[in-house]
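To: structure subgroup
Subject: Chain for Friday's discussion

All,

I'm putting the inputs and outputs inline so they're searchable in the archive.
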Amino acid sequence: MRAPEVALVTTTINVPKCLDAYLDNLARHGHADGVSVVVVGDHKTPPETGAYLAQLGKRFPARIVYMDVPTQRELLKRWPAFDLFLRYNCIQRRNVGYLQAALDGAQVMVALDDDNFVTEEDYLGAHLQVGREVELPVVSHASGWWNVCEQLECDPPRRFYHRGYPKSRQNFAPGGERVERRRVRVAVNAGLWLKNPDVDATANIEEPLNVVRMLEVAGAKSWALAAGTWCPFNSQNTAFHVSTLPAMYLVVMLDYFRGYRIGRLDDIWMSYFVRAIGDQLGEHVSYGSPLVVQDRNPHNFVKDLSEELGGYILTELLCGWLREFRTGARTWLDAYLDLTYHLAAMADQVPDDATREYFRVMTVGMAAWQGAVAEVLQAR
């Protein structure tokens, strides 16, 4: 059977030379056909990126699409409300790549960061469980939370949490989870990382982390979390089926809240939206394989922390609202619209003006995204 049409999607402010190794890995493991690459540029992207991608297209059979700023502007004229809401010089421009990949017919999208480097394992093969029903170990915890980073070993040893994991839920006494094998439909597969894991700035400031291996769960390199047991995921080394696209919107950030500029939570909040909807649609998020080596681009961890502090407060509130969400919708598109209205209604009840206004603006962006995706999915 022919593999699903797959799009690798990345934003970059560098020449994305990591793509050589990804395409070579796909070819070596029999996935060269039916693959496209969508690269979303920005004002900071080096001008030689276009020439590099053109050469890449001559060496591999994948269809290479480079969306420079003029190309994005032309596409987004179709959805002016979303266009005017989206910023430049931010990773949320990955949303544009998702729209283009969906228009081009992709059934599976794999989000990459340009500092993620592929290993020798079958990269795409591990991601292709999205959109399918597969048998996996399913982890549940009575607390409603389980940190997938429990399965990552560091040298020197250290315990840490996934970026965006609510601070109030960080219980450093491990254990208490239950594992059962069963068949689940996978909406999203979140691959993990070697070397530099994706953690809050506080963890990076305390001590550098070096992940050297991943432990299996019940003998498996991939596992799912049960409905009601949550952990965030991010938008790097993450695959999803096109049906899930409505909920994969990276929330536009960098507005101010109580003097803090909020950032670094666009994909994290997205992941909580996915869980709130997926739990009710009977679809799951899987974690684990494939691993990538994250050789992190230079970061100012104190600046990262300044963009996370206000988000610590808002994430606690948001997760509480998401736990209360209920929908009778049977599609991701309809459920996401219901979620948008639910969050707007919850925000309206908050007496604090700053909090209410922050979430009001966020839901305006969510509504603009939902409208764009509705048109794209209808056109497929």
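Points worth raising on Friday:
The chain has a mean pLDDT of 95.
The first strand starts at residue 6 and ends at 11.

D.
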